[in-house]
Amino acid sequence: MTQPHIVWLRRDLRLADQPAFHAAAALGPVIPVYVLDDETPRHRRMGAASRWWLHHSLEALALELEAAGSRLILRRGKAAEVLATLAQETGAAAIHALRHVEPWWRMAEKELAKALDLRLYDGLYLMPPGSLRTGGGTPYKIFTPFKNALIDAIGEVDVLPAPRLSAPESWPASDKLDDWALLPTTPDWAGGFREAWTPGSAAAHARMEEFKDILAPYRQDRELPSIDGTSRLSPHLHFGEVSPRQLWHAIAGMGGQGPGFFKAELIWRDYAANLVLQFPDYGARSYREGYDEGLWRDPENDQAAAADLAAWQQGRTGYPIVDAGMRQLWHTGWMHNRVRMIAASFLVKHLLIDWRQGEQWFWDTLVDADYPSNATNWQWVSGTGVDSNMFVRIMAPLSQSEKFDAGAYIRQWVPELGKLSDPYVHDPESFRCRPRDYPAPVIGHKEGRERALAAYKAMKG
């Protein structure tokens, strides 16, 4: 009897261009397994929006495996312990998995490797995290030289087809997906998610083909919230339904500036993983020292700060572009990238609330909540990161809204302002046309800017 090989799945829910599947399939029967592990991540338990996506992504993968003559095994518990038990049950020769950079997964990989033959492969990023080094042999900390090094190193990208899988003589027991209760029920808040998204590898590739049709003007269109100018591939990438190398390969040879700018965003994703590999607690600790001493207002001990945080979370700040973004996030589990920057800057600088409050909110509400990218983006906006925007560079949300033509976007997500035309919809308070059912600004722009600069100056001593 040929010993089976286990493929341990996490954020790599696909068959094509999945090196762990290929390696296992070449050696014998394959047992694909996903372990729902809420113990190893501890404070990084998957957020509610991501759990919704996970349910549907696992459903799609199970169907894909069934069509390939295989099946998906589901188990729940601490991953290292569950996999060790499963290997003993099945007599598995080895466990194959894609290497992850999140600190909790690195810990689980080390624990599992002590007891079993764990074989790790690279496949989540364009290049293996940690493989790019400066001339001095150290990891890159600054994005631009990292980007240039990756472009020089990557060469022509090939992708793996889906492997042919053989089944073991007998299948181990599996949990039922519905028993995991990943979907919201009381209340069912995911109606907007169902309207906006179709998880799964097939849907990811369909979206990739749609995106190629609008890629040429991507440099300009990605900045405009009111049009479909972004890739909307981030949740598919996060859950590994499509690989970054598949995307890189798909747009190879396409002309214009659009492909280059999209490639830069894929490289930023690699860069974020590179930072978390160097600084595992990057999602919980400011890289720059001193920023946590006296700069932030504390919502736990300051009622005004708590009210401001709640207004931001609920999209009730009185700043239309910020509120539209936060409501889009709540309704669909996603927010336009330009608006993410505006909303994040507003929380950190206008409201002087710690970037970690925003990072945690995004972690729970985003379907593309990715630890390296989320941490890197928030630290960039807050000015606390390795390579980041300066704190004293404060976005003006009202002028940003008009600059990037967000009127239709605001009218869609803030119905109280639905009857206002441009330019009034961007700043109804200043034009004295704010509807009664829309809140006044929680703080004036000039007042917020001056408060932030004064707090920064005081922090600097």
Provide a compact summary of the structure.
The chain has about 450 residues and is mainly alpha-helical. Helices cover about 45% and strands about 5% of the residues.
Question: Could you explain how this protein is built, in words?
Answer:
Residues 3-126 form the Photolyase/cryptochrome alpha/beta domain. Pfam families: DNA_photolyase, FAD_binding_7. Its EC number is 4.1.99.3. There is one protein chain. By secondary structure, this protein is mainly alpha-helical. The protein has three domains: 5-123, 3-Layer(aba) Sandwich (Rossmann fold); 125-158 and 199-278, Serine Threonine Protein Phosphatase 5, Tetratricopeptide repeat, CATH 1.25.40.80; 303-460, DNA Cyclobutane Dipyrimidine Photolyase, subunit A, domain 3 (Orthogonal Bundle), CATH 1.10.579.10. It is built from 19 helices and five strands. The chain has helices at 19-25, 48-67, 79-90, 103-115, 143-154, 191-196, 201-213, 218-221, 234-238, 244-250, 257-278, 303-314, 320-332, 337-350, 355-365, 371-382, 397-403, 407-413, 445-460, and strands spanning 5-9, 30-36, 73-76, 94-98, 118-121. Strands 3-2-1-4-5 form a five-stranded parallel sheet, sandwiched between helices. Helix 2 (48-67) links the parallel strand 2 (30-36) and strand 3. Helix 3 (79-90) runs parallel beside helix 4 (103-115), helix 11 (257-278) packs across helix 16 and helix 14 (337-350) packs across helix 16. The radius of gyration is 23 Å and the shape is globular. The chain starts with a strand and ends with a helix. The model has no long low-confidence stretch (mean pLDDT 96).
